[in-house]
Amino acid sequence: MKLRNRVAVISGANRGLGEAVARAFAKEGASLLLIARDAALLRRVADSLPQEAHQNIAWTSADVSNLTDVETVRDQVVSGLSRVDILVNNAGIYGPIGRFEEVDWQEWCDAININLLGTVAMTRALVPMMKQQGYGKIINLSGGGATAPLPRFSAYAASKTAVVRFTETIAEELAASHIDVNAIAPGALNTRLLDQVLEAGPEKTGPDFYQRSLKQREEGGASPDLAADLAVFLASAESDGITGRLISAVWDDWRNFAGYRERLQKSDVFTLRRIVPEDRGWEPKSCT
Q1: Under a CB-based contact definition with an 8 Å cutoff, are residues 188 and 222 in contact?
Q2: Helices (runs of H) and strands (runs of E) counted in the chain
Q3: If I label 188, which of 18, 21, 226, 279 is the partner at 20 to 30 A Cα–Cα?
């Protein structure tokens, strides 16, 4: 069991990828605190997880964009679990779909609050415990919007890009405390987010994106279990020292990262960086 005697907090754990990560962590022996807004779905997931005698599986209804709720989660970790080794910031929404100047402003802000500020708030709440322990793993969920433009999903794209830069930044801040911080791009999953795209229709999403989404639904999309396996790797001792990276569950050779850990530590691969003319073989004078 790769996570035996470890304690993990997982947000957005009531369905989809969050549920898959919870199942994978439980199978690997971790004790869990599951959080999400929908208490009924959360209870269903918690009650269905495999559990050994050494494990403690708890849940609490909470909104990561609400600081009072986040403080309640922190207090529950302190009183009920006494430590936290792993934090998975999975809670997220697409936000409004459509041209950015036409969508509802409050919905746009809500997406930033949940996807970005919720990730920051949960991390701020639990990092002090990890620093006191001298060890921890933080796993943030990003997505395709972080690495390429995503027209008509501006709030989602902006928030997920910010999550990656936040990941890279605090990875450096927390390195001395032996806390690894990484982001996962899980791939195109057939979750409720896909349902929202199809319900919005091609007029809001754009015809090309809508057609790709239809094809994704028909073909099944990426496996949430693959992203959950990557989360297990990043939560376990196997990945110690690998930090500040955005890793694709589908495309990257993450199962072999441990074999070239030192090379990763000295490079900027799997990070967000500005492309300059020299990167594309341009002569400097060709830019003027």
Answers
A1: yes
A2: 11, 7
A3: 279
25, part of any domain: yes
In whole angstroms, give the CA distance from residue 93 to residue 164: 16
101 within domain boundaries: yes
The arrangement of strands across the sheet holding 31-36 comes to 57-61, 31-36, 7-11, 86-89, 136-141, 179-185, 246-248
Structure tokens at 219: 């073909």
What's the pLDDT tens digit per position in 123-162?
Answer: 999 999 999 999 999 999 998 789 889 999 999 999 999 9
Note whether 238 and 204 are same-domain residues. no
pLDDT of residue 288: 56
Query: Is residue 281 in some structural domain?
Result: no
CB 77 within 8 A of CB 9: yes
101 and 19, same structural domain?
yes
- Determine, yes or no, domain membership for 174: yes
Whether 211 and 263 map to the same domain: the answer is no
> Alpha-carbon distance 155 to 140, whole Å?
17
Which range marks the domain in which residue 148 is found? 7-187+224-275
Catalytic residue of the set 135, 156, 210, 260? 156
Q: Catalytic residue at 94? A: no
Helical axes 16-27 vs 224-235, angle rounded to 10°: 50
Whether residue 47 contacts residue 127, with contact meaning beta carbons closer than 8 Å, is answered with no
